[in-house]
Amino acid sequence: MKRRELERWERRLHLGAHPVLYPLIRGLGYRRPVQRIPGLGILVSDAGLLRQVLMDNERFVKHGRSASGGLWTPVVGPKALLNMDGAEHLEMRRRLGGVFTARSVAVMVEPAAARLRDRLERELPAGRGVDLVREVKELSGGVIAGILGLPADAPGRLPDRDLFDLGTSITSLVRLGRHELTPPQAAKARSAVERLAGPARAAYRDGAPDTFPGRLRELGMSEQEALGVVSAFVIVGTETLVSFIPRIVALLADAGRLSALAADRNGLPAAVNEGLRFTVPSPMMLRDAVASGTLGGVRYREGDRLLLSTIHAAKSLGGFDPERTVPPHARQLWFGAGPHFCIGMPLAMAQINSTLESLLDIYARQPWRIVSRRVKHRVLIPGYETLELANE
């Protein structure tokens, strides 16, 4: 019963986000591992072939006109990490390699995580309901402030929720069937980026090494390069985390695993990893072919768009099972692979783990449950509109 319930909610989430494309692509993906879909591109649904594409930065690029990185070039400029390839991209990653230490991640996450923890500790034990989606949006906005180098007491500082809304106003412009942003869409996104860039620019010029922009300056990046990198992390992390954290909480509740995890946290890393595999917070990745060749028996040409269906690659392994051993070719595909493996993974995991630890701490003292939930509709990343928790 529990397995059917959690799988039912998972299907509802995806159908809410993509009522037409989800059943179409899911149905096609089980027919052949690689196939051409007119008007969309070449769908790749096999984990091994998907990893092969991600590892091959010579033939398949992220910065192409219709690939995911190319969408953002008119918004953040050509050097924002998420839209770079080749030697320049590798050099940028090398320079950023030491940025995501435990200390630097804590500086960006802990203030917002502490505010979230205080709200949960205040509301749930008092018998008041908490909308976890709203709370995670506040967390995300607080982390955006950390990325921008914006202290909580800065004059005129936007509230955390407003910072989140600015970030999501950029990411909400992306659609699977949209090969590029229109000029008005790009202008809207640039306007939001510029509002976010103001505090980051000030932090960069101040040069304090305990801020993210100041650390980028210390690494020798120009102001424009630093602002591009800051913008990239705001864009990439906003929607996926606000989608995933309520989903993993719902998944653990639906699977009946909260009591065991509240009593013993040793199983939490495996549960989170399996939650990432099962929910696939990045269900599709995009690449452009820059050469001709054959993949899985299908001929591709220069300029073809590849739809890398991580949702097929991950979900083909079966239902939610934290005891599962994921085969090497499918491991962590939701974070990418090869040169573009998500460099911000430590930042994402810090937000996930801090929220789950806070909720489990409260659950150990006084169990709570999901009292209501609503699915988001017509969005790029499937997720809940609301997920309300309350004491049992």
TrEMBL record:
<dbReference type="InterPro" id="IPR036396">
    <property type="entry name" value="Cyt_P450_sf"/>
</dbReference>
<keyword id="KW-0408">Iron</keyword>
<dbReference type="GO" id="GO:0005506">
    <property type="term" value="F:iron ion binding"/>
</dbReference>
<dbReference type="Pfam" id="PF00067">
    <property type="entry name" value="p450"/>
</dbReference>
<keyword id="KW-0560">Oxidoreductase</keyword>
<dbReference type="InterPro" id="IPR002397">
    <property type="entry name" value="Cyt_P450_B"/>
</dbReference>
<comment type="similarity">
    <text>Belongs to the cytochrome P450 family.</text>
</comment>
<dbReference type="GO" id="GO:0020037">
    <property type="term" value="F:heme binding"/>
</dbReference>
<keyword id="KW-0503">Monooxygenase</keyword>
<dbReference type="GO" id="GO:0004497">
    <property type="term" value="F:monooxygenase activity"/>
</dbReference>
<keyword id="KW-0349">Heme</keyword>
<dbReference type="InterPro" id="IPR017972">
    <property type="entry name" value="Cyt_P450_CS"/>
</dbReference>
<protein>
    <submittedName>
        <fullName>Cytochrome P450</fullName>
    </submittedName>
</protein>
<keyword id="KW-0479">Metal-binding</keyword>
<dbReference type="GO" id="GO:0016705">
    <property type="term" value="F:oxidoreductase activity, acting on paired donors, with incorporation or reduction of molecular oxygen"/>
</dbReference>
<dbReference type="InterPro" id="IPR001128">
    <property type="entry name" value="Cyt_P450"/>
</dbReference>
